[in-house]
Amino acid sequence: MKLSYDKDADAMTISFCDELIVEDRELEKNIFAGYSSKNKLVELQLLDISSSDDTWLTVEMAAKVLDKSTRTILRYIQDGTIKAKKVGKEYRIYPQSISEFAS
User: Fold this and answer.
1) What secondary structure, in 3-state letters, does 12-62 show?
2) Residue range 70-99: average pLDDT?
3) pTM score over 0.85
4) Quick one: pLDDT band at residue 80, thresholds 50, 70, 90?
5) 19-41, pLDDT tens digit by residue?
6) Which of 8, 36, 56, 89 could form a disulfide bond with 19, CB atoms 3.0-4.6 angstroms apart?
């Protein structure tokens, strides 16, 4: 897993493998997932990082990125393995926490 930031594009990318991306899917506003021809998640890209308040991932998105269940992600948050911020009744996870966890 590799985390990178493109200053010119103001985008953060979390790459999971070096496969070719053949399809991009918008998960939420300014958050895209790139998939290979085998429908494998290749990268996650967050756009307009510096001007957005929505740079956080949801528990569901983190579960998909890490290929874990949402219950497992919540357990990781509760025991401090993954750092998250509680917003109302939901948690928001900074992409850097996901990258640190996966490495």
Assistant:
1) EEEECCCCCCCEEEEEECCEEEEECCCCCEEEEEEECCCCCCCCCEEHHHH
2) 88
3) no
4) very high
5) 999 999 988 888 898 999 998 88
6) 36
Burial class (CB in 10 A: 0-12, 13-18, 19+), 35: middle
**C-alpha 28: how far from its chain's center?**
11
CA distance 59 to 77: 9
* Inter-residue long-range contacts of 55-58, CB under 8 Å, 24+ positions, other chains counted: 55/12, 55/94, 55/95, 56/85, 56/87, 56/92, 56/93, 56/94, 57/31, 57/92, 57/93, 57/94, 57/95, 57/98, 58/28, 58/90, 58/91, 58/92, 58/93
